[in-house]
Amino acid sequence: MTGGCPVEHSNSQSCHVDHSSSSSSSSSSAWSKLSSNSSSSSSNAALATEREISSIPRVSDGNWVYPSEAQFFAAMARKNHNPQASDMKTIVPIHNAVNERAWTEILKWEAGRGGEACGGVKLVNFQGKPSERSPKARLKMLIGYSAPFDRHDWIVDRCGIRTRYVIDFYTGRSEGSTNNTPSFYLDVRPALDNWEGLKMRAERFFGW
Prior knowledge:
By secondary structure, the chain is of the alpha+beta class. The chain has helices spanning 26-36, 69-78, 88-110, 135-142, 195-206; strands at 53-57, 63-65, 122-128, 150-158, 161-173, 182-190.
């Protein structure tokens, strides 16, 4: 279980990150950092079991659903990340917001491309690849940038046209922060593995 959230999702309607990679140290550590930096010391806080419905449409019906505080806590505990129950009220909303931001960036790429004709673009599937650096991430590392803490590949359907998006997740300290809570930067773009992705990237680069 790796990827943007440390939750093992056996339900097909769960959080939309597939945690199938064998590496578990990179992205889970980002959530562990949030837990370890919390000012709260109580580990006995009541954990909510309610789950938030995301804004991200599924291909079949409805939207993807995020894990509850209880699910998130249990998954972190299984991975020996020493979670604090009282921290879940902070960590879970941040996790959800990061995924919502990724979808917002995808919608910016998809704007004006005809997805509204079939009810809007939808997320088909997804895969967490924290141990696989994208070519762009490797290039940025060569010129001195920090490595992303995670990578996701999301497949999006636009009226039968499927596009793979690569998402590199970066973290850093928020300006003016006094509690070391990390901020997140997402580098979202279509993969260059088919004509559609090449065309979209070229249009943005040249401003067509």
